[in-house]
Amino acid sequence: GNSYFKELIELWLEIYEQKSGDKEIRKHMPLVIAWTGIVQVYPRWFPDIDVTVGRNYISHVKKILKHKEFIWND
Question: Are residues 65 and 48 in contact, defined by beta-carbon separation less than 8 angstroms?
Answer without folding.
Answer: no
